[in-house]
């Protein structure tokens, strides 16, 4: 090797080491910032969802515990009014009907906000009741197979319930499916929620890239809150399959 | 004749590729199919190194011919596998025209390098195709890297694609530099060129260790329910 080549080689190696060091620092910095950003994003989503659920619970509770009894009292008092006029009697009957409608609507709103059965009896009975409520309004045959025994942490149950709600609503709105099958179970310390429909399917990557489909983002956010993993398999004409794997914490 | 030290060291630095290949074969059926092109690339690299080692052993033992045709065919097949993997991970936004167009362009450059610039010969080490493809792979890797930084919701350090991108940058940037410096080989002495090549070879064990880590971090196939 000539002397000039030796110098060139030495300079080249030193330059490469310096550039390599800078690139390594750049890489480590990116990883550190991304970890920090992920932690902050996670905390933000957790706080948002926790606030949302807390508000829903409060409103559902207020509707059920305060407005409901007031309406029942109003109905009772109206029925105690002595009326001899036939027209007024008819008006009382109509008013009773309106009050019954308002009570019914209020119960539906309260149920949609946070079903009481979810708090009292747990996830599986709540999902079964939800399926019973929606099946009359859709031609889709919805079925659930659950091997979940015992109760889970209430926040976990609420979030999984919301996932199921979102999936069922999406199937009804978009899938044009005949059947929707859901399986809920536990494997080791992982809760597994798997769904499949025989609908028209969609291009998942395209939807996420175009940010069309708030439902998918909701599913992703809920899963992130539970530190779970969200998988989707869907192609046009071949139906849609979801798989959620969520770390399990038993109810204390 | 005895095998020279620099050739033995070259073998030694390449050995970790076989570990990567073993891990790739073990995990092949378990990983999500979009990672398969990278596994094919690892297996191709290992088989190429094995073929080259056998060829060099036969040369030093039985004085058989040693050419560059194994590596020349390897560099024709390896970049499309890398590109296919990057396409699966979102490069070109799913537009297959860019994928096929790039591969066709590489094939044309390879043919030009071996059949026009250097005469009809695939036995020599050529430079133009190597510079073109390694520069393009570097740029595509950076693009994929940036995409990951923006979109990834989980920890980057455990993301197999991120780890692969780091490995590729570590491999192709010095490789590109080495090929560019030695483009006009007549300007330098053989000792200098061998030293440059040997310096790059030292990186190989680290690169294959990175690839092995990436394969271990690849997500497993999920079992969805069927109707």
> Reading side by side through the largest sheet of chain A, how are the strands ordered?
1-2-3-5-4
Number of helices of chain A: 7
- Indicate the mean pLDDT of chain B: 89
What global shape of chain A is seen?
Answer: elongated
Number of strands of chain A: 5
Strand content of chain A: 5-15%
List the helices and strands and how they pair.
The complex is a heterodimer of chains A (252) and B (227).
Chain A: H1 3-79, H2 86-113, H3 116-120, H4 123-135, E1 141-146, H5 154-175, E2 179-187, E3 190-197, H6 204-209, H7 214-225, E4 229-234, E5 240-247
Chain B: H1 5-14, H2 16-27, H3 36-62, H4 69-88, H5 96-117, H6 128-151, H7 160-181, H8 190-201, H9 204-217
Helix pairs in contact in B: 2-3, 2-9, 3-4, 4-5, 4-6, 5-6, 6-7, 7-9
Structural overview:
The complex is a heterodimer of chains A (252) and B (227). Chain A is built from seven helices and five strands, in the order ααααβαββααββ. By secondary structure, chain A is an alpha+beta fold. In chain A, helix 1 (3-79) crosses helix 7. The radius of gyration of chain A is 28 Å and the shape is elongated. By secondary structure, chain B is an all-alpha fold. The mean pLDDT of chain B is 89. The chains are: A alpha+beta (252), B mainly alpha (227). The interface between A and B is medium-sized, with 35 and 28 residues.
Report a brief summary of the structure.
Chain A is of the alpha+beta class and 252 residues long. Chain A has helices at 3-79, 86-113, 116-120, 123-135, 154-175, 204-209, 214-225; strands at 141-146, 179-187, 190-197, 229-234, 240-247. Classes of the chains: A alpha+beta (252), B mainly alpha (227).
